[in-house]
TrEMBL record:
This is Thioredoxin domain-containing protein. PANTHER family: SPERMATOGENESIS-ASSOCIATED PROTEIN 20. It comes from the Bacteria. Pfam families: Thioredox_DsbH. Residues 6-161 form the Spermatogenesis-associated protein 20-like TRX domain. It comes from Flavivirga algicola.
Length: 678
């Protein structure tokens, strides 16, 4: 195909960057050559950050970046850089912080203008074409006539950026008490939506880490009211349009309060974490709805998001083409009443009641987003059905509608692979295997782990962040190490394959060498081997994905038990103590830290299982929800600290230990569970 314009992005592998390779804007990728060019030519840098599944990024591209007049202004006055935020979260973080300081808000697309040295002086999110042109002209004029004003502003902003995400060492003695967590949950509960679940506002994000912590806390404290709230949230999310009722898998968030109309992009990181969350929720409640969510989501991941070599793709776009060829958000997923009547015929009445083809399920312009309101029992009673018949009908509906949907224009796939997100999905698979015992889930987890070892782990012990077309070229961030260590520890606990445990330890040691800040006892987001940016941040607030530092602190807590390592243990305590002063103010941004704190306020058990039946006993033990434990095990003699001198031929013993004191070994799992619940 002949293109009128081609820019430097044509050499990139990121689908998001490639989408802009034929804009009239002279886009460059973020690299040392581009930054050197800006300095050499003494030109302002225009940095535009987005990602492939971002709806408003596409809108701005269509309005402004495909427009030759806009391109003319951009090319004349700026060195233009396009950034895929998923490939370069470090760059995104710096300019996002700057835009939030300047405007009080953030989001994508993220557009910033910086001096030739990279220091930001202006920023905004989505900007309509007319205002975009006006802003570019004003800043260009100011730079030409009074550059000192921009340099003065950059100095102030730089100081502001350097004070953000600074964590000081907390020299107070570390005291972690249940009362502190109870109070944090009490403050947090004021924001709960006890009618629709989630937080009492819209849009509604799933925030898996929040509900994973609340699920555990409610269980461990026997707080029935909180258990009801968490289960309400999980049910409403599962019933909502935010879950793809036909094809499985979750979108990023819902724009309304009832989880109905999603922002239709599907991200790998949401689905990986939600599989883990619903797996644990099923383990506690045995609610079949949760099991269905896990199996349907993993079926979607296998079908749409998995490569032949076991890696996972990043996302599916929110937008796809309508039959008329217009790019429209949600076009692939929505239904019209008349076509459903034709497709479903005699089943239409039942289907429309089940999925609310009525005012409750109507979105806009005659489009319906499927949403559930009633549980299966109510529908079975109302229509005098059996459970098996309803299950059969649902299966049939999904097959018919899937076949029709697959004839539509599909949303664009972001087919790059990111190590951190792959590790979150790997963990989802291993958690689903732990709870449901499905061997194919373990096979997918191991295949992905081997992909990471083979393709993303370098000879120097470091990780790459990205992979596409057989190529990995971006140095890993703390999030890659934290998520991979976490996943490998879970893999070890379920397989007893020590390779995963020792690799997790080696990756942790690598992060101490290249990411650790000795003064604050926290980890930087970027390696000391990366080129320096305006500021080097420490990511410690939990978001949709928990902060890399909170995952890392949990990893070190576990590794300290496995290897009896004082340095790991003391670092984990220091890290938690450092963020403790902030945690009660805004608990939802510290849920993974609060989860770690539960390990200190409750007994934390080391369960060592040694003998030829160790794997079977682990499988049996995993049928009970016990979040405050780790498992070590071996089928042979082993010199790991928790296993040393414990192997007895012809016997399999379970040792339950807490605070370096062990109960007498038992051979029956139910007796071990009693010891764990004392």
């Amino acid at each position: 195909m002949e293109h009128k314009y081609t820019n430097d992005l044509v050499h990139e592998t990121s689908p998001y960057l490639l989408q802009h390779a034929h804009n009239p804007v002279n886009w460059n990728a973020w690299n040392e050559n581009t930054l050197a060019k800006a300095k050499a030519e003494n030109k302002l840098i225009l940095i535009s950050v987005g990602y492939a599944a971002c709806h408003w990024c596409h809108v701005m591209e269509h309005e402004s970046f495909e427009d030759s007049l806009v391109a003319q202004i951009m090319n004349k006055n700026f060195i233009n850089i396009k950034v895929d935020r998923e490939e370069r979260p470090d760059v995104d973080q710096v300019y996002m912080n700057a835009v939030q300081l300047m405007t009080g808000r953030g989001g994508w697309p993220l557009n910033a203008i910086a001096l030739p040295d990279g220091r930001p002086v202006w920023g905004e999110t989505y900007v309509p074409k007319k205002q975009w042109i006006s802003a570019l002209e004003q800043i260009s004029e100011l730079y030409a006539e009074k550059p000192e004003k921009l340099y003065e502003y950059a100095d102030k902003l730089e100081q502001g950026l350097k004070t953000l995400d600074i964590v000081n060492l907390n020299t107070d003695a570390p005291v972690f008490e249940s009362a502190y967590i109870n109070n944090a949950v009490k403050i947090w509960s004021d924001q709960f939506d006890n009618d629709q679940g989630g937080m009492n506002r819209a849009p509604k994000f799933m925030m898996p880490s929040n509900y994973h912590f609340l699920l555990r806390y409610a269980y461990q404290t026997n707080d029935e009211k909180l258990q009801d709230y968490v289960n309400l949230t999980l049910k409403k999310m599962a019933y909502g349009g935010v879950f793809d009722q036909i094809g499985g898998g979750f979108s990023r968030y819902s724009v309304d309060e009832k989880w109905h109309v999603p922002h239709f992009e599907k991200m790998l990181y949401d689905n990986g974490q939600l599989v883990s969350l619903y797996s644990d929720a099923y383990l506690i409640t045995k609610n079949d709805l949760y099991k269905d969510i896990v199996t349907e989501t993993l079926a979607y991941i296998k079908r749409e998001m998995t490569t032949e070599n076991g890696a996972f793709y990043s996302s599916l776009d929110a937008d796809s083409n309508t039959p008329e060829g217009e790019l429209e958000e949600g076009a692939f997923y929505v239904w019209q009443k008349d076509s459903l009547k034709t497709i479903l015929q005699n089943d239409y009445e039942l289907f429309s009641d089940y999925y609310n083809i009525n005012s409750y399920g109507l979105w806009e312009h005659g489009n319906y987003v499927l949403i559930r309101k009633d549980d299966d029992e109510k529908i079975i009673k109302k229509y005098d059905l059996t459970k098996d018949l309803l299950t059969e009908k649902k299966k049939h509906w999904k097959q018919i509608l899937t076949a029709i949907r697959n004839k539509r224009s599909k949303p664009r796939l972001d087919d790059k692979t990111l190590t951190s997100w792959n590790a979150l999905m790997l963990k989802g698979y291993i958690d689903a295997y732990r709870v449901l015992g499905e061997p194919s889930y373990l096979a997918s987890a191991e295949k992905n782990a081997n992909f990471i070892i083979k393709n993303q782990l370098r000879e120097d012990g470091g990780l790459f962040h990205n992979y596409k077309n057989g190529k990995s070229n971006i140095n890993g961030y703390l999030e890659d190490y934290a998520a991979t260590i976490d996943a490998f520890l879970a893999l070890y606990e379920n397989t007893l394959n020590e390779t995963w445990l020792t690799t997790a330890r080696d990756l942790a040691n690598y992060t101490f060498d290249h990411f650790f800040n000795e003064e604050s006892k926290m980890f930087y987001f970027t390696s000391d081997e990366d080129e320096s940016l305006v500021s080097r941040s420490i990511e410690y607030r939990d978001n949709v994905i928990p902060a890399s530092n909170s995952i890392m602190a949990k990893n070190l807590f576990k590794l300290s038990h496995y290897f009896d390592n004082v340095h790991y243990r003391e670092t984990a305590i220091s890290m938690l103590n450092n963020v403790k002063p902030e945690m009660q103010e805004y608990p939802s941004a510290y849920s993974n830290w609060l989860d770690l704190m539960l390990n200190y306020t409750n007994p934390y058990y080391e369960v060592a299982i040694v003998g030829e039946d160790a794997k079977q006993k682990i499988t049996e033990l995993n049928k009970t929800y016990i979040p405050n434990k780790l498992i070590a095990g071996s089928t042979t003699d082993n010199n790991l600290p928790l296993l040393e001198s414990r192997y007895k031929p012809n016997n399999t013993f379970i040792y339950v230990c807490v605070n370096k004191a062990c109960k007498l070994p038992v051979s029956e799992v139910d007796k071990a569970i009693k010891l764990l619940k004392e």
